[in-house]
Amino acid sequence: MSGPVVCVGETMAALVPEPVGPLATAGTLAVTVAGAESNTAMYLADHGVPVRWVSAVGADPFGERITAEVAACGVDVSGVRTDPARPTGLLLKDPGAAGTRVRYYRAGSAAAALGPDLLAAPAVREASLLHLTGITAALSASCRALVEAALDGPVPVSFDVNHRPALWPGGREEAAAVLRGLADRADLVFVGLDEAQALWGPAVADPAAVRALLPGPRRLVVKDGPRAATAYDGAAARTVPAPAVEVVEPVGAGDAFAAGFLAALHRGGSTERALRLGHLTAGAALRVGADHGPLPPPDRLAALLDASEAEWRALAPAAGPTPRAPLARSAAPVPPARQDA
Fold this sequence. Notes:
Elements (H helix, E strand, L loop, with lengths): L4 E4 L3 E6 L11 E6 L1 H11 L4 E4 L1 E3 L2 H12 L8 E3 L6 E7 L2 E7 L16 H4 L3 E5 H6 L1 H12 L4 E4 L10 H13 L4 E5 H8 L6 H7 L5 E6 L3 E6 L2 E6 L11 H14 L4 H16 L11 H8 L3 H5 L23 E4 L1
Parallel strand pairs: 1-4, 1-9, 2-7, 5-6, 8-15, 9-10, 10-11, 11-12
Antiparallel strand pairs: 2-3, 7-8, 12-13, 13-14
């Protein structure tokens, strides 16, 4: 690939109780950065892949902070617009016994005003690959038009389905139809098996059923939570189990997986190697409370990527139903993330 990977999408300022606990009783809120596409961009930069994040932020301190933090990770932010009339999006994490509820304040945000004209910008035209998600398609009519236009353009598109139920006013039926249509037009697609079942029904029981539903992409990656991931390259399929990881918080792991997979492909790696690097990068996100965590040392990464199949499988949980990993901070099980509009 000659040009950079270009990740397009909204990133918000995130306020997180510190220490972790219910928002209503929090004494301190830490400010972090939260965005699927910028998460992927930061991990791609960690892997040494030339990458650019393209978006819009408000002319406010949150916008300044987000841009600076993404840039500090080695991501090119020259394509980020500053909108003087619209704010930067904001979210609040509200951890509780039933799960982490995520409250969004993003209506009318700067990124929600993005549209197809963005594709004409030099920062996007130079891309060797565009990485987009279903989140962008749900933000506004102009954002959906941006995704549609990208899929019709000359640059290959990587698309992470990334279904966020609270963003779809028409509910599951609207999301299922739109996301299936978009995904089937992309060159490379990432989707979780549980996500596919929530969107398209319990009949989508395994990766093969997802492939039958999405025959369009040359490459399709189906992630089965902490168990395994299966990648299709045309008709050929390869499944690689996931190493066991002690989970602090699951948010951001899918974005990290996509970055690892794309980084391996960028270097000309095999499907097996791409799946392994996807799992290892996801593990970096799972081990921290923020969306972006440190990768293993380079020598450790190299050893794991070069391990024999038997050595790799020895890292995976024992066969059978996989229990939820314990929180590093307590003995409580990892609760699911919940999202409010």
